[in-house]
Amino acid sequence: MRFFIIMFLFCFANTKAQETLAFAQEVEAISKKYDTVWDSSKETIVFTGSSSIRVWKNLETVFPGHQIVNSGFGGSQTSDLLSHTNELILKYNPKKVFIYEGDNDISSKKRPGRIIDDAQQIITRISKFNPDTKIILISAKPSMARWHLKRKYKRLNRKLKRLSQKNPKVDFADVWSPMLAKRKVRQDIFVDDGLHMNNKGYDIWYSVIKEYIE
């Protein structure tokens, strides 16, 4: 029995190490990209979080006149962003930060309370670094692939909204509601995997996010 326990712990630790390494490589690639294009003398808006941010390829185009840093990293959870807050957020001393996390957390069976704890730690780190930075928490989105988890996502969104109400420097951007049609998730706003959005989906996000940009 002891042998099997040791093997289980070894395999678990090895898996976590591989995940950490994978994110470290992606984070390093993001840093190298913006080392060549980011202008530290200009005000910066950071968009970060999981793949819904990472694959929003035209952020700079839809928000012209702003220096945008897209530091999204695919497959990430809130705890991963917490681990890489310095490299993905604080490094750019942003005036605003848009955060999309929680989607993968819920899918991985994390409890909303734990997600909120990690989100609060991220907010605290940002605020300590620069008390003037505005933080916008983007709600978890509905999706075809994860519609069976809708109640858990809605619960998380309620908690994210309450978290934002505790801090005048934090806002909550609701993308959940406009992505629905008659209480069902729209099916014309996703790519084939039913999880990631197509241009129509990002048009909806743009209509919500633009209110928090200026």
UniProtKB/TrEMBL annotation:
Q: Which GO terms describe its molecular function?
A: phosphatidylcholine lysophospholipase activity
- Which UniProt keywords are listed? Signal
Q: Which SUPFAM superfamilies match?
A: SGNH hydrolase
Short name of one Pfam family? Lipase_GDSL_2
Q: Which residues form a coiled coil?
A: none
InterPro entries in the record: Ester_Hydrolysis_Enzymes (IPR051532), SGNH_hydro (IPR013830), SGNH_hydro_sf (IPR036514)
* Extent of the signal sequence: 1-17
In this chain the SGNH hydrolase-type esterase domain maps to 59-204
The answer to whether UniProt assigns keyword Signal to this entry is yes
Q: What is this protein called?
A: G-D-S-L family lipolytic protein
Organism, scientific name: Costertonia aggregata
